Amino acid sequence: MAARSIAPTIMTMQGLPDRLNTQSHLWSVSQSHSRLFLSLLSVTVTLTMSWLHASPWLHYVSIDEILRPYVFRRFIPFSARILAFASGLDYRAALVTLIIACAVGYLISTRYLYTTFFEHDARADLFVLLSAVMLFPILNPPHMYDIPTALFFTLEIALLARRRIVLYIIVFIFASLNRETAFLLPIVFSVHFVQDRKMSWKEYVLLIVIQVLIYGWIRYTVLSSFSRYPGDDILIRPIENLRMYLESPIQALVVLLLSGSILWMVVHQWRNVPEIIQTSFLIFTPILFLMYVISGKTFEIRVFIEVLPVLTIFLTTMISSCARSHRAPNPLAI
Question: Using CA atoms, how far apart are residues 212 and 2, in angstroms rounded to an integer?
Answer without folding.
Answer: 85
